[in-house]
Design goal:
By secondary structure, the chain is α/β, with parallel strands linked by helices. It folds into two domains: 122 residues, Response regulator (Rossmann fold); 101 residues, Orthogonal Bundle (Arc Repressor Mutant, subunit A), CATH 1.10.10.10. Helices cover 42% and strands 21% of the residues. It has eight helices and eleven strands. The strands form three sheets. It has a five-stranded parallel beta sheet, with helices on both faces. Helix 2 runs parallel beside helix 3. The longest helix is centred in the middle third of the chain and has 19 residues. The radius of gyration is 18 Å and the shape is elongated.
Length: 233
């Protein structure tokens, strides 16, 4: 049984989500105040955090950052308001795995949760690429999210690891943005170009000697991205 921590201050929404999630076989623990969320998360051994952004005491973005700073890789799904586009992007870059916008259908939420667990299993699998991958003195571990590049070591987010794994598995191939979004997020998040470009920029800062002139993680103008080792081997 997967265990979910629900952090939501709207009692009616929280009750409805708890009822539906438990009906799908999940164990749910509910917290209604931001300042209690991190402590509850630390105690609970959770498989997923379902986290509202607008909370009393401490907002969801801060909670996410605190949890990621502890080294946790547990998936985080944000609940956002419709007009919080900047917060959606910030949440994804801070280590969030997905978001859902109020008002939403419970069936959509359940599909998002199932998608997170499915992609989590893909990232942990050895399909095509082993758990650890090294190239030209660079290194990435797809289980611990640890990476080493020319300027040192980094902790990547789950999504950053997934983007890198998807590109590495297709070394030498051009991967369109939409294909990458569908594989890593499961749908076309908004705004497409900015979101993907931010993740690619972070990966270049980790692995490239000169991120402004990338050798390994290339942009193919008008087509997508390519992880390319062949012309440097």
């Amino acid at each position: 049984m997967k265990k979910i921590l629900l952090v939501e201050d709207d009692p009616n929404l929280a009750d409805g989500l708890t009822l539906n999630l438990e009906g799908e076989g999940y164990e749910v623990v509910h917290v209604d105040h931001g300042k209690y969320a991190v402590d509850e998360f630390d105690r609970g051994n959770f498989d997923l955090l379902l986290l509202d952004i607008m909370l009393p005491g401490m907002d969801g973005l801060t909670i996410c950052k605190k949890i990621r700073a502890k080294g946790s890789t547990v998936p985080i799904l944000f609940i956002t308001a419709r007009d919080q586009t900047e917060q959606k992007i910030e949440g994804l870059l801070a280590g969030g795995d997905d978001y859902i916008t109020k008002p939403f259908d419970v069936a959509e939420l359940l599909a998002r949760i199932q998608g997170i667990f499915r992609r989590q299993a893909w990232l942990a699998s050895g399909e095509n690429v082993v758990d650890e991958y090294a190239f030209d003195g660079r290194h990435i571990n797809f289980k611990t999210f640890k990476a080493t590049g020319p300027i040192g070591s980094f902790d990547l987010t789950r999504k950053e690891c997934m983007v890198m794994k998807y590109l590495v598995e297709r070394e030498g191939q051009v991967v369109p943005r939409d294909q990458l979004l569908d594989a890593v997020w499961g749908y076309h998040i908004y705004p497409t170009n900015r979101t993907i470009d931010n993740f690619i920029l972070k990966l270049r800062k980790v692995f490239e000697d000169d991120p402004a002139n990338p050798k390994y993680i290339e942009t193919v103008r008008g087509a997508g991205y390519r992880f390319n080792l062949r012309r440097f081997s």
